[in-house]
């Protein structure tokens, strides 16, 4: 199966697919920002996940295929509202939240390869600090 995206995070590379059927507006909005590079840090409240804080960046989307419990390898976009805009990558058990309480984000990307490296990526961000992340077309 061909991948839609290549995601490089820390020393690891992952193939990924856009969830076009379930989150078409979020996928289209994110594509406009490709290639997308940022820093990935460990979450504070959500459990086993990494996040990209995006402040006031707006993607122009509302809730779409939203969840508070992304599975390992699922990437969600919180489009802003009661907390800042952010992207979250689950590597283990997650209950997506912020200092204001539970949140729901749009599941729009799923990693499709090398998922066995997710716990090591999470550990690296937790113990070594921010990791580079890049989303690019293959």
Largest sheet, order of strands side by side? Answer: 1-2-10-6-7-4-3-11
Question: Care to count the β-strands?
Answer: 11
Number of helices: 2
Q: Give the terminus-to-terminus CA distance.
A: 13 Å
Order of helices and strands: EEHEEEEEEEEHE
Strand content: 35-45%
Mean pLDDT across every amino acid position: 96
Instruction: Give the biggest beta sheet.
Output: 8 strands, antiparallel, barrel
CA-based gyration radius: 13 Å
**What class would the helix/strand composition place it in?**
mainly beta
List unreliable stretches of 5+ residues.
none
Principal-axis shape equals globular
State the helicity in percent bands: 10-25%
Q: What does this entry look like structurally?
A:
- Strands 1-2-10-6-7-4-3-11 form an eight-stranded antiparallel beta barrel. A two-stranded antiparallel ribbon has the order 8-9.
- The protein has helices at residues 24-31, 118-128; strands at residues 5-9, 12-18, 36-42, 47-55, 66-67, 74-78, 85-94, 97-98, 101-102, 105-111, 131-136.
- It is built from two helices and eleven strands.
- The two termini are 13 Å apart.
- The mean pLDDT is 96.
- It has 138 residues and is mainly β.
- A hairpin with a 4-residue loop joins strand 3 and strand 4.
Provide the descriptors you would attach to this structure in a database record.
single chain; 138 residues; mainly beta; eight-stranded antiparallel beta barrel; two-stranded antiparallel sheet; 2 helices
Question: Brief description of this entry?
Answer:
By secondary structure, this protein is mainly β. It contains two helices and eleven strands.
